[in-house]
Amino acid sequence: MAHTELDLQERVAIQRMLEAKLPITQIAARLGRHRSTVYREIGRNRFEDEELAYLNGYYGVVAHKSAQDRRARRRKLVRLDTLRDHVVDRLIAGWTPEQIAGRLSHEGQAIRVSHETIYAYVYSKEGQSERLARHLPSRRKKRRPRYARRPRDQVFPPDRSIHQRPEHVKTREKFGDWEGDLMIFERSTGKMNVASLVERKTRFAVLFRNNDRSSTHFMITLMNVMEPLPQPARRSITFDRGFEFRAWRRLKADIGTESWFCDPQAPWQKGSVENLNKRARRYLPRDTQLAALSNRNMKAICDRLNGTPRKCLGWRTPTEAFRDEMMKLR
């Protein structure tokens, strides 16, 4: 059955049945709607006014007008090409809907749009056809309810323990299993840090600057770094249990990469990346001013680390080993 919006007649019927004190389940049954549809309708379109509190309640005609006004606001980004192009351009540039809406207000633009309207457009049929959701910080395919319950399971559940990793990860038999960590610097550098990644079989290192220690920000940046690799080159990443890695589920959901976690207080279990951090400290001491480091600087450090012959690789360099493995995937 195709989805249809409630019409005026149904909303008036809801008002009358509420006045008759009928339960929501019975109202929904009479309308042929799911009870959650009726609950949501009453919650969204109920009239409320602090100064006229005695009039607060659900009124069919008022509710219908509220719903139409909301739909008109949501369609603003469909009707106005210039506004839509501006919003899409800012989304692609990495701005959040709140930043886009706030900036329009700050600039005193005659035509503005709320962040909720931008979110509604992103998840609308038009927005989904343009795959706009991938530019959002959350990178979800569907939007969660604003007050959705938080999952109560453990942040790092037992089935993600390093002891549950496939044997081939431990033995380095296969290509595409990584270890990840954060290199922390002095407080004077602010929230900036450097993320370190190393591919276990080839010892190939990746370093990138991370401007915020929040888990969401870190995972988004990490996914942007890893996603260009073919899937077999990013099978899994092993982390410690730092709070920066709490959003690990996004790796699996968005780019298909598994996550594994060391035991508490056992960073030595991801020895490859710990070794990388020690070598990288020669170029990135704790008092490094990260804000002054450009992407070119970071690449130069990676090139130096990856261009050094390694005994464990038969004196090949990590770059050579990584390139050989990538060639096998073609």
From TrEMBL:
Here the segments flagged for biased composition (Basic residues) are: 134-149
List the residue ranges of the region (Disordered).
Answer: 131-161
GO cellular component terms given for this protein: cytosol
Q: Note the SUPFAM superfamilies from the entry.
A: Ribonuclease H-like
The record's annotation in InterPro entries points to: Integrase_cat-core, IS30-like_HTH, RNaseH-like_sf, RNaseH_sf, Transposase-Integrase, Transposase_IS30-like
Keywords per UniProt: DNA recombination
Q: Which GO terms describe its molecular function?
A: nucleic acid binding; transposase activity
Q: Which Pfam families match?
A: HTH_38
Gene3D superfamilies found in the cross-reference section: Homeodomain-like, Ribonuclease H-like superfamily/Ribonuclease H
List this protein's GO terms for biological process.
DNA integration; DNA recombination; transposition
Looking at the record's lineage, which domain of life comes first? Bacteria
Residue ranges of every copy of the Integrase catalytic domain listed in the record: 162-326
> What name does the UniProt record give this protein?
Integrase catalytic domain-containing protein
Q: Which organism is it from?
A: Salipiger mucosus DSM 16094
Lineage, top ranks: Bacteria, Pseudomonadati, Pseudomonadota, Alphaproteobacteria, Rhodobacterales
